[in-house]
Each structure stands twice: as structure tokens, then as C-alpha cells.
Amino acid sequence: MTVPARLQARGLSAGYDGRPVLADLDVAIPDGCFTVLVGPNASGKSTLLRALARMLVPTSGEVLLDGRPIGEYGSKEVARILGLLPQTPVAPSGLEVVDLVGRGRFPHQTWLRQWTREDERAVDEALARAGVSDLRDRSIDELSGGQRQRVWIAMALAQQTSMLLLDEPTTYLDLSHQLEVLDLCRSLQQDGSTVVAVLHDLNLAFRYADHLVVLSGGRIVAQGPPTEVVTAELVEDVFDVPCRLLPDPETGTPMIIPRSSGHDRRDPRQPVRPGPDPAP
Prior knowledge:
Helix 4 packs antiparallel against helix 5. The protein has helices at residues 45-52, 75-79, 97-102, 117-129, 145-158, 175-190, 202-208, 226-229, 232-239; strands at 7-16, 19-29, 34-38, 60-65, 68-69, 82-85, 163-167, 194-198, 211-216, 219-224, 243-247, 254-258.
């Protein structure tokens, strides 16, 4: 059964300062799924995410949200439906965690409706969901990379949107914190949210994604469930990495085993021979 798409692009082309990056893309983000965008550097992953979030105006084509061109929505209207966590968010120096997360309530406020108990509850729930309630009174400047990333996610959760777009949310994090962030994304998706993330680690992408979008040279070369679209040939063609694919022993999803180049192969049963003694 095909999962419907509230967010999609048709014939989308986009770029920066007259330099094209995306070329005539058609992509549909399945509703209620965890979609992961992968591709080599400069393939257009972040550009596609920005275009889907209305942070970048297409040069041609369109992005549709609930069947309507996204440009027709007001800014706050979009922000009540769709949350975006950019690649390198920056907070004002000295800002406390609770204040940053509270900024996620901005789309719900007006001149007549300022801070309310509902906003307070939303912030508390977002802090708890992201696992950072104990950090609420800490300065953002004092936090580790993993803590900061979870706080930014909490701010996005405070928006209470049904869609969350994350640009490289695991960059600069160690493996433990990467898994924390991805487990949180999976939990949000299981609770009914639509989650879209740009990831670099292919094995983690294949493990967590319900739906995979593979980009190369500004075009989509494959999209669908990882178990259906990922092949060794695809990985070598797109990422220039000869490999074998094995089923992940935990999830059964594709797992990449890069092939040795052959330049450093040796029989592990043979001892390493010492070099010649230096001349006296």
C-alpha cells in the first residue's frame, strides 16, 4: 500500500547565486515515516531539505504541502506544520536552555496571545521528550555537543509540528550520542510524526530509515525502503566505494562492508618482518 505524502516536490530545480544544485526533482515524503536523505558531498541533500522547508525558493518547479504550493502559506502557518533544525544552529551567548526551547512556541503566539500555560506545558513536554529536563536552567554555552543537539531538537518539538526536518543532526557527535538522536527520531516517528533527516553514515541511514532518498549530482537516483533499493552497485556508483552488502544482524537492513583496495593486504598468519638495521 502506498503511503500518502503531505509534503512533496514536483519538477524541483534550485541552487544558489545562479549556480544550479538540484535539477528537475520529483520526490514525495511518505507521511508518518522516517525518511533519510543520503548522497556524497555536494549532491544536493541540504539544498533539497531547505527547499522542502521553504527556506530556499526554487528556480523552477514547486513544493506542495497538503496539496497546496508551500509559498502560498504564511510563515507562521508553515511553522505550525513543519519544524526545521538547520545544520549549524546558533544560539545567543548566555541563553538558558529553557529560553531557547521556549522560542519554539513563537508560531503559536500573537499580539493577543502571549505566553500561556499551554506554552509552558509544551516546553516541559519537549524538554522531557528530548531527555534534557535536567538541563533546563543551564546555559547553552556550557553544554556538550550531544546535549546541545538534543536541546535544539527540544526547541523543534516545542513547535508541536507534525513534520520535523533535520539537516545532519548527528554531525560532530560520537556514536553514543548519534544513536541517542536517531532513537529519538524513531520514537517521534512511531508516535505519528513525519521525520526527514540528512545523514552521512550510510549504515545508520539504512538501519533507521523507513524511506531512503539517494541523491547524486543534484538528481535522485533511487528512493524507497532501504531493503528494496540499496545494492552494492548503487553504493559503488554513487559513493565510489566498492563493497559487499550483508544483512545487519540486529535489524536485517543492508550493511556495507567496504572491499579492501588490495594495496595493504597481507596474510595475517605471517609475522611482520622488521626492517633492516640502521647504518652505524
